[in-house]
Amino acid sequence: QSPVVIKFASAFAPTSINNQETIPAFIKAVEEAAGGTIRIEHYPGGTLGPNPIAQLKLVEDGVVDIAEVVAAYTPGRFPELEIFELPFVFDSTVEASLTALEMYEAELLSGFDNLELVGIAEVGPYYLHTSDPVRSPADISGLKLRVGGPVQGAMAEALGAVAVGGIPAPQIAENISRGVVDGSPMDLGNVYNFRIADTAKYHVINVPLGNVAVMFPMNQAKYDSLPPEAKAAFDEFSGEWFTRVLAENLDKQNEQSLASLQEDPEHELVEFSEADVAAMEETLAPLVEPFRTAREGVDLYEEMIAARDAVRATR
Amino acid sequence: MAILGLAALLVLSILAIADIAGRELFGRPISGFSDATDLIIVVAAAACFPASLANRQHIAVRFAGMLHWRLREGLDLLGHLLMLAVFTVIAWQLAVYTIDVANSGQTTWILRVPVWPVWAAATTLFTICVPVQLAQVIDYIARFVSPTPVEDVARVRDPSATVL
Amino acid sequence: MGPIETGVAGLVCLVLAILLQVPVGIAMTVVGAAGYFILTGSLASMLSLFGTETVNMLTNRDFAVVMLFLLMGGFAGVAGLSADIYRVANAWIGHFRGGLAMATVLGCAGFGAIAGSSIATAATMARIALPEMEKRRYSLSLCAGTLAAGGTLGSLIPPSIIMVIYAVQVEQFVIDLFLAAIIPGLLSVVFFIAAIRIQLLLDPDAAGNEPRRSFPERLRETRHGIGPILIIVIVMGGIYSGFFTVNEGAGVGLVLTLLFALMRRSMTGATFFATLYESAGSIAMLYMIVIGANIFGYFLTLSHMPSEISGWIQGQGLPPLAVIFALVMMYIVLGCVFDALAGMVLTLPFVVPIVAELGYDLVWWGIVNVMVIEIGMITPPIGINVFVIKGLRPDIPLSTIFRGITPFLIANIAALLLVLLFPQIATWLPDALR
Ligand code: NA
Ligand code: NA
């Protein structure tokens, strides 16, 4: 009997760490465990649907079976995931990703009707990268900063910066070099991928500015149609296994980027004083409020902190 | 329709100048300007389609039609039938998409404006394309069955109107 | 039938449909969707692609700039900016042998720095320059050849709609393509002028004489150039210097050209609406071509044909330059009989991986593509720019126009060869400004 074919798509470059390492590792693990009942075809680089924003629709329509979906590209579609963009909560991708998975399994995240979550990476933490010197919180005031969503926008404005929206991540570097913006929050790992390091030479590395969700949903009907042996193999490696490998690889990339920045004399790694960080934390504290009341009877922020602490306890 | 859509684009361009001036001179861009851009370009582009179909502007290589006028009209009719089918499916699928973004509550990035009204407008514009194109198909049927060749109007009338 | 056989059959059907007069965008949509259905068996997914790809293009900001540049070119024509550029060029070099033809080339280049399309440039300049050249007893073949070939500068000199389409499809920065095109564009201008000179050495009777203008008269004429120069400096200067993005620059240019048209009172309500209405037709047509190409792209990917072909070519171990020359030859042959833009959009999924794998710069390849497309627009038997001139002046025989084009075709091929052999001509400027 011929194997079930699963189309696993990503609109991002074949050289990204997800496409280069994590997804192939997942495919290998599942195919081996399924003993010939599954074949997973990997389509990186947008060969099957080049628009990153359309990936979710492609999964829902069954054009592809699994895709790499950036939740922020469809604002309002996964409302609870925005809470991970809050600053000062997580210190690594692994911690944030496992917390998100925990919340998904506790059914605190909506928007997943007809979708099966294969894995989720809460990429980050984001740090501020600028072309103008930033050595204290006061220097942020007046800068034009690219923001990737409403929470980052509110954060930029609370810090006295001008929030500029509508610039996709691959175009940040271009817009910094042309002076359209002065900088952007970004995870360390992508500072080189998006060539932001070419133009932004100042990096504030002790003020974590939140995490951003990249997830891998699967078409529910396709998942339900898998034969038992295939489904068992799939279940074994989706969820925690895939999420953990994803996040660990991304954290590895974060560390490599940080090391490269440290070695390069062109770059200045900035650490704000403890007092400054504490003051920023206070300035940004009101951003939490909307999430406490967004869902009736649930304090989403408290739920997230509880889940995070549970994750921290097991590590 | 097209005129309204492109006039909106013109207004957007004037706003863009205000946005640039605000950003460069006063450090204050128009808040949520990029959201407005994202919404207006959808309607502006969609508004061009009904006019384009009424205009019969499209790139087609009219090679085979040089052999005989009835062959030419028959092939044009075929092309326009396919076009009618394509626009019908697009209008239908856009309606499905509109319902989908309305139900899932999708908004713009910064101002969190719901996006479904824009897609409802785009769906309406593509739905208008269907009767417009149907009228073209009927016209081509008449030309195809006509006993004598009808003058070939689909030639480039005003080349400055075409691009490339 | 396996996926690859289905892919080949799909390509054959597509070429047939286009030869049978089906509009290019519609042909790609229908054949692509049918092929997708055959390969996947899923009707619902196939239908959803019509929605997905329409949504993708309607929301694509980079592509939206096409609307702005088209309108800007339209308003610039109404405002008479093309005539201004021509008058200035004429005042300074009109008295040389063949000076009016050279001024036409410069006029096309100047208007090309405002407008984004070849056909608009050829048509607009023909209305202005053709009567002047005829008055001075320039031969019809020289007139028509200069205009058809000069018109191609509208696409090669930025802004350029073809470059926007390429950049969107290949995911390169539009600004990089614009910068890369500047030197090849100027090179083509120089080669066209040289072609006129050489032609007149061989056939001195092909051009009449124009009196030399006095210096004060020249200065007076130059004042007319202030409008277009102002627009080029503000819009393109603003974009290149990073004062604003390409989209913002196009918006600024649109407003400026409209203001000029209003100030000169050349813009009536009727011409305003006519410009919008006619641009709408071109805009929808371009959107439809890209929507169709993207739907066809799903089918191609699932057929695994592009990866097989590029894998096979890489496996041959040919020298990279030989592969590049073979591709360029293929495009030139294709451009003779096929719609050149559709040809480019359609072949990108096959060709771009090959070019990238050979280690060539994709911005450079974009410029090569545009140059090849421009050659296709003036080669017989189907050359759109030639038909534009023929459409304006049905009394000029096609053979006369094609004869007039020959020297410019040689100039075009020489410029293309230089860019092929010395990619730095294109890549130097964007690299230097990065
Ligand atoms: Na141009
Ligand atoms: Na040709």
UniProtKB/TrEMBL annotation, chain B:
It holds the Pfam family DctQ. It is a multi-pass membrane protein. Keywords: Cell inner membrane, Cell membrane, Membrane, Transmembrane, Transmembrane helix, Transport. It comes from the Bacteria. The keyword Protein transport does not apply. Coiled coil: none annotated. Residues 14-139 form the Tripartite ATP-independent periplasmic transporters DctQ component domain. The keyword Translocase does not apply. Its main location: membrane. The chain crosses the membrane at residues 34-54, 75-95, 115-134. It is found in: Cell inner membrane; Cell membrane. Part of the tripartite ATP-independent periplasmic (TRAP) transport system. The complex comprises the extracytoplasmic solute receptor protein and the two transmembrane proteins. Belongs to the TRAP transporter small permease family. This is TRAP transporter small permease protein. It comes from Devosia nitrariae. The lineage of its organism: Bacteria, Pseudomonadati, Pseudomonadota, Alphaproteobacteria, Hyphomicrobiales.
TrEMBL record, chain C:
Residues 11-425 form the TRAP C4-dicarboxylate transport system permease DctM subunit domain. It comes from the Bacteria. The chain crosses the membrane at residues 7-27, 33-51, 63-83, 103-130, 142-167, 173-196, 229-262, 282-300, 321-342, 362-389, 401-426. Keywords: Cell inner membrane, Cell membrane, Membrane, Transmembrane, Transmembrane helix, Transport. It is found in: Cell inner membrane. It holds the Pfam family DctM. The complex comprises the extracytoplasmic solute receptor protein and the two transmembrane proteins. NCBIfam families: dctM (TIGR00786). Part of the tripartite ATP-independent periplasmic (TRAP) transport system. Belongs to the TRAP transporter large permease family. This is TRAP transporter large permease protein. It comes from Devosia nitrariae. The lineage of its organism: Bacteria, Pseudomonadati, Pseudomonadota, Alphaproteobacteria, Hyphomicrobiales.
